[in-house]
């Protein structure tokens, strides 16, 4: 019997503008309503980027804390804050995200080209963020955009030990222009290269690679991240109307693959989240 399926929703991201996509949840009210719908549709964890009052990405600590509290008040979802932010956020601000005391944080294992931009994650920053997550008892999700990031994860774990909670959960972020392609072949290669300390992995395919990556991940027994951070169309020319639509589709795919859905409470134990 396969492991229950952990569905993470990434509802907002830092790249899409509200003007281009009015259905993107950018206010706190919209985010909380989305989170409630996505939990009902089968999500167990939420990966959060916060927007300011003009809908621009922000790492404002007050807003981050308010968002964590609001999500905890209205849902049971595991709350993961993005430490990636936007490509314009300074590293020092990204470290301060942990001051908002989330359950989990994203932790990208290296610098990557990101479309026309660069998503900066120098090695000393990765180590600082990792050590801070251990001190603060926040469970990192290791974001791997490239095969080189797999090797960096191995190096990080051998130098600095296991994360808080003792579990090592990885998300393969595939199909970013500049990172590994969103194909079944690349997914199989990345999974085969994961270090032995990894206890679970999921994958997300950006843009049109979302279905190829999702289906390949399920075939290999992995978990799924979906959401409007990663994809804005259901199929060519058909816009996503809500994050819950993507979570429902992921849940249907999981059911087809004979996977039960992991509840938020099960996800806490599974990921080693502090209770
Ligand atoms: N917005 C990207 C530059 C993360 O959340 O940790 C980085 C990102 C990864 O979304
Ligand atoms: Zn993100």
UniProtKB/TrEMBL annotation:
Cofactor: Zn(2+)
GO molecular function, one term: metal ion binding
Annotated InterPro entries: Aldolase_TIM, BKACE
Key words of the record: Metal-binding, Transferase, Zinc
Protein name: Uncharacterized protein (DUF849 family)
């Amino acid at each position: 019997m396969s492991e229950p399926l952990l569905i993470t929703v990434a509802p907002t991201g830092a790249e899409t503008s509200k003007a281009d996509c009015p259905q993107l949840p950018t206010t706190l009210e919209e985010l909380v309503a989305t989170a409630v719908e996505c939990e009902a549709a089968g999500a167990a964890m939420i990966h959060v980027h916060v927007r300011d009052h003009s809908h621009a990405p922000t790492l404002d600590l007050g807003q981050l804390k308010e968002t964590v509290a609001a999500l905890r008040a209205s849902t049971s979802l595991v709350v993961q804050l993005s430490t990636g932010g936007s490509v314009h956020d300074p590293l020092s601000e990204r470290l301060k995200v942990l001051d908002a005391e989330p359950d989990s944080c994203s932790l990208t294992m290296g610098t990557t080209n990101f479309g026309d931009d660069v998503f900066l994650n120098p090695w000393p920053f990765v180590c600082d963020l990792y050590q801070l997550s251990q001190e603060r008892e926040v469970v990192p999700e290791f974001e791997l955009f490239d095969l080189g990031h797999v090797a960096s994860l191995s190096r990080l774990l051998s130098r600095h030990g296991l994360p808080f909670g003792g579990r090592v959960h990885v998300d393969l972020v595939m199909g970013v222009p500049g990172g590994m392609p969103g194909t079944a072949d690349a997914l199989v290669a990345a999974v085969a290269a994961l270090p032995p300390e990894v206890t679970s992995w999921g994958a997300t395919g950006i843009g049109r690679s979302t279905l190829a990556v999702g289906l390949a991940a399920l075939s290999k027994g992995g978990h799924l991240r979906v959401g409007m951070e990663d994809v804005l169309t259901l199929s060519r020319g058909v816009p996503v109307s809500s994050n819950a639509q993507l979570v429902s589709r992921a849940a249907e795919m999981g059911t087809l693959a004979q996977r039960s859905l992991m509840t938020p409470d099960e996800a806490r134990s599974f990921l080693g989240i502090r209770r």
